[in-house]
Amino acid sequence: MKYAKAVKCMIVAISFIALCGFISTSAVAADKVYKWRAQTYAVPGSVGYKALETSLKDLKAASNGRLDIKLYGVGSLVGPFEQLDAMGMGIFECGFNAPAYYAGKDPAFAALFSLMSIWESTSDVKIWSYYFGGLELARELYGKYKVHYVGPALVGAEPIMSKVPLKQLSDFNGIKIRTAGGLTSELFKKLGASPVKMGGGELYTGLDTGVVDAAEFVSLAENHDIGLQEVTEYVLYPSFHGNTATCDFTVNQKAWNKLPDDLKALMESWVFELDARFDYQSAAESARALQKMKKKGLVHTQLSSEDMAKARQISLDVANEWKKKSPMSAKVIDSILDYLKLTGSIK
Q1: How far apart are alpha carbons 272 and 55 in whole angstroms?
Q2: How far apart are the first and last CA of the chain?
Q3: CA pair distance 132, 347, nearest whole angstrom
Q4: How far apart are alpha carbons 42 and 52 in whole angstroms?
Q5: Element (H, E) at 205
Q6: Thinking of the domain 34-155+244-287, which architecture would CATH place it in?
Q7: What residues have CB less than 8 Å from 16, skipping those under 6 apart?
Q8: CB neighbours (10 Å) of residue 11?
Q9: Which of 237-246, 288-297, 302-311, 335-344 shows the lowest per-residue confidence on average (mean pLDDT)?
Q10: CATH architecture, domain 160-243+298-343
């Protein structure tokens, strides 16, 4: 009897010690601060940089200071095209970048970035991402490089800023145009242009020195923020090549795995806030930027509805050709086209 009572006391004591240890461990986890670094495609001071900077401050406040992510501009830590490998190796923890920069690793990254004029709105991309399998496909793709895909943030139609007039599709024949690469490069090639792959930080010099005649880059506001109106004479806006552009917020897989579940859930919800800020702030600033550019004397051009329809058909042809480049490309593009057929956007 005394033995049984002693055993019970021992069990209670062990359980109490274990409980205390659990509470102590939980308290430490709840108090731990994760100091991370994030590199973005954007130039410091531009609307894309400011939107992410503000959202990261919101994330720190929402996590009660437990997620403290320091932001670095394009090329500060590594080149924009090396960002995926750097995250995978743990050189820094987070990235906010255009996935088309990684198309050399798997062409599917370019399909995630944009299917040129095939998408009709940012809303369509978001619906596909969250409710038609896009998120799962993106996580499968990034996971191969030891990186976790948290979610997308999008902006609306991109511009093309140029030193030569671009008023119709035939005007692209023979020009050199900066692009992030991927499907967009193939589209420009079909129009007779010579695409040049370069990061956003190189655009001003590239246009100023004549390395390129034209450039496409995220939102019109960001083009203005980095001064491209100073080295161009024309702005095609909105352009046919990118009705929407997607940037991805990603995290090194090991770093993600170490986060407690509440912070993972917070980051996944926070991406929605980042997405809205990125989109709406870019739209507001782009409207102001267009007026400033026109006052400066830049000529605002737009393609005819016939040329826009022709560009969309060429884009569909490019997308169907791009599917053959990798198994993941086929999965991503087929998924997108199936969604757009379901909505009646394409036949």
Answers
A1: 10
A2: 81
A3: 18
A4: 9
A5: helix 203-208
A6: 3-Layer(aba) Sandwich (3.40)
A7: none
A8: 10
A9: 237-246
A10: 3-Layer(aba) Sandwich (3.40)
